[in-house]
Design a protein that fits this description.
Length: 95
């Protein structure tokens, strides 16, 4: 049994071809998933529309955790900050 497993594993390893090196200059930075961001923001706005600003803020915190490359980091981060500030203002005026 062990010999059979070793033979199958050896054949499988032979079929997998991994690149030995990737040029870092050619690698594109990972971008955030637009549908995931849209989902986070839609759930945030939905909670805000229902007047549950604490829930909206907690959902927005998920957007702060999303990785964004350098060319998008400022825009995504600033949008999150502004939306968070608006949620705080809405929460204050509602109380």
């Amino acid at each position: 049994m062990l010999i059979l497993a070793s033979a199958v594993t050896a054949q499988t390893i032979g079929l997998i071809t991994l690149p030995r090196h990737v040029n870092p200059a050619e690698v594109q930075p990972e971008r955030p998933d637009p549908l995931a961001l849209l989902n986070i923001y839609s759930l945030t706005v939905e909670a805000a529309l229902l007047g549950d600003y604490d829930l909206a803020s907690s959902r927005l915190k998920e957007a702060f955790k999303v990785y964004a490359p350098e060319d998008l980091k400022y825009v995504v981060g600033r949008f999150n900050e502004l939306l968070d500030e608006e949620l705080e203002l809405l929460n204050q005026t509602d109380n």
